[in-house]
Structures are given as structure tokens and as C-alpha cells.
Amino acid sequence: MADQIRCQISMKLKGKPYALLADESRDVSGHEQMSLVLRVIDDEKIKASNHFIEEYLLGLIGLCSFDALSLAGAIVDMLKTYDIDLNLCIAFASVIAGKNAGVQAILRERFMPKALYIHCHVHRLNLVVADVCVSISYVSEFYSIVKKIHNYFTASCVTNKYFRDAQTELKLTHTNLKLWADIHCDSRWTSIDAILKNYEVIILAFNNLIDDGGARADDAKGLLVVVREPMFVVTLFILHKLLGPIKILSDKLKAKVLDYGKAQQLITSVIEELNVSRDQKSFEQLFETIIDFCQKNNINLKDKPKEHRKRTVSIRFKDSVISSTIGQRDDNQNEEYYRTYIYYQLIENILVELKDRFSSKNLNILLSISSLCPDSDMFLHFESLRPFAEHLHFDVGILFNELAVVKPMLKNKSMITVIDLYQELYPLKEAFQILVALIECAMTIPVSSTTCERTFSRMKLIKTTVRNTMTADRLSDLCLLAVERDIDVNFEQLIDKFSDIHKNSRIMLK
């Protein structure tokens, strides 16, 4: 059954440009598994809906060797097994970023000459937040506190009952504290948001646990002290504000239909939003909210926080970290301290990371894709599209002529995305073959490899601690059947094939 589905996927890719997505994860037995996903435009769905960009799981590959050459060989063998043309691969999305002798370098040099390497944008965004977390000493401590609060109220049914009782006493809707996951940047904002909404509940639950005594009261006393510190509350509000746009960006980058050009616009928009937030007025508005919150919860903002050991600043942030101020008190008690050493510094560090990890240096081909977005200033500009067309070996002379004809036609059309442009030109595909092909390639290039991560979620449901002896091939087939349930299986063909393989069967199946 799984092979029949793979053959159907292979047929959908015949003669079409496609993108390859790959990622690795470890199963419950400790074996490394690589997920291969293929992204392609489904012609059957173009007229039916706007969701015609599909990502199909080809299968999981059990890995025994982990060097770049072995990984690249395993990918190529899998594609060749199902007669998938390597020359039609125009993009390779992964988190494997070795540019000199890594997997992506080997694939591009030896097997996929047209493939552009796309480092998963969601992974990049997580690296942005992870690096910012360790750039300021108290922020690392803050994240540790958030994790301990979640573990304290979820690890024990007793402490969880105190938490639920506190929500009932305060007449609040029963909501859960969210897990802080280091590999998912959006989980950081959701965990902070959950603590902010349940702050009074947490304080009341800690006090009730302390009053009742017992072994759990000791941990409750320590956590109660740190969550009532002014530094914790201020950091809670600042990170809630700054990580909010990043959470939205992360959600958008996970969408299947998002093209690379639109992703670059979203990233630029978030950078602009953070730049706007970096002024005194924005912080004053935020600090007024913090003051009201502290007054409501009897927290004295003038309490002096404990001293922290000075840490060596990373070279990456050397130009954004403020080491001294002039004309301000150095007693860590005033609004200026929180604005300068926490708020401004976090914004500067986030901007440094975003601009560095999403840099446009040496990305002329990918940047030219944004010229296909209707809201771009360089919309359908020939010189902007030329690098992308030349990379795909398209005739740029014909492209120039097609652009000259199509621009007046689209002048009064209302279009927002590349998908709108494609649907407008698809009926005229025979007249504008190069331009339509260019748009198809642009939409096929992925922004992230999150579909691979979704397959790992399915893998963990299939291979569990009580079913941990299945072979790698069986695991791959079961995952494929679970993920690609929308693809119909021809059972008549399946029975005929089974009959041909097992000719000694006592039952005549054919």
C-alpha cells in the first residue's frame, strides 16, 4: 500500500519542478530517522481552490551512518527508487547548513544543479530567540524560573489541584500553564502569556501550599520569592511584548502556501515593528501597565534586585550591549535601568540576530522572487527577475517579451499575493510559458521544513515504548499511510500485486 502511494506521488511530480524537504529526529528506540517530503503544485487543485501547493511525505530513512556523503547518498537512492528526476529539484530545505562539504553542498554539486538551499526559516527564528535568551544574564535565569513553575504545577497531581482550586477561588476560567520548549520559539511566548494570565492564581496557590506545610512548601517558598521580584515582573511584561511579533511570524512561516518573497516581507515588517518599539514613549506606556499590575499584586518596584555576576558579552552583541550610563543612578531601582539594560538591550539583540540570520547577502536569486509579489516595488521588473530565470536556464529574451505584454494586461487587476498572479495567468499559460513557469518555481520554493517535523509527531504516535521493535521500513510505511490518508489506494491493483508476489497462496486472488 505504501509503495502504491509513493508511485502516485511520483506520478504527480512527472515533468514538474519540485522542492525537497529533509529533517532528522530520533525515534523511541534511539534510532535516527530522516524524513523526506516533496513539495509540488497539484494541477488538479488549481481551479478548485487556492490551496494547490502540496507537500507529500515520501517516507522515513533509517540512518546508520551520519556523515554528509552517506546522508546525501540515502536521499538520492530514495528518489531514484521511485523514478523521481533529480534535475527537476529546484530547492532543498533543511536545517543541515554545511555550505562547503555538507549534505546540501553535495546534493547541489553532484545531483541537483538547479537546487537552491533554503535553511528552514522557523529554525532560524528559533536560533534568534535562543541566542537572545543567553545574551542577558537575568533573562537566562528568568527562563529557568518559568520552566520550574510549569514543572512544579504539572509534575504532581497535588500541586495541580492547588492550582485548579486557586483558579476556582478567583473565579477564573480553568486554563493550563504552557510547556517551555527550547526547540520551539513560539512556545516561549505562550508559556509567558499563560503565566501572565494566571499570575494571581500562581501567587495564591503558592501561599496555600506554604500555609498547609509539608515537603512541597519549601519549593513553593523559593518560587514565591522569585516570582514577586520586580525584575521578574518587568521581564515578564517586556518579553511578552517583544516576543509577540515573533510568535506571529513563526506561525506564518509554518504555512504551506507561504512563498519565499512573502516570507522576506514578513521578516522585514517584524524588524520595522521592533525598530518602532525602540523609543522612550513605547517603554513608558508599557511601564505604566507594569506599575498598575504591581500595585494590584502588592509588589514594590523599588525593591533592589540581587546582584548578578557580570558575564562576558558575545562578540555578536558587542555593539548593542550597554555597559555604563551617564547621569543615572546605579542602584538598579529606577525605570531607567529597566529601559536601558532590559528593554533596549533585548530589542537591540533581537534586531542583530534577525538581520544576521535573515541576511540578504549573496541571495540575489532568492531576492528576485519577491519581484513576483504584486505589492512589491519591483513587481515584474525584468532585471530583478533575471537572476532567477538564468539560474533555472530559462530564455531571458522570451521572458523580456512576455513581461512587456503582460504588464499592461495586469495594470487594473486587483492582486495581493503570488497565488493571485498565478491564477490570473494560468488560463494564458500557453501564451506566457516562461513567466508562468517562473511563478510556479517561485511558489514551489519552501520557506521552512515544518512538514517534516509534523511527520515526526506522527512517528512518535506509531512507534512507542510498547511497539519499539518494528523495522525502519515498516515504520516508514506506517507513517506514510498515516500522513497521506487523502491519497486513494487502488485495492484491486494491490491484490493483483500481492498475488504476483505470493504465487504459492492457497487462495486464488487473481
UniProtKB/TrEMBL annotation:
MF GO annotations: protein dimerization activity
Domain HAT C-terminal dimerisation: from-to ranges: 430-486
Record InterPro entries: HATC_C_dom, IFN-induced_PKR_regulator, RNaseH-like_sf
SUPFAM superfamilies associated with the record: Ribonuclease H-like
Signal peptide: none
The protein's name: HAT C-terminal dimerisation domain-containing protein
Organism in which the protein naturally occurs: Rotaria socialis
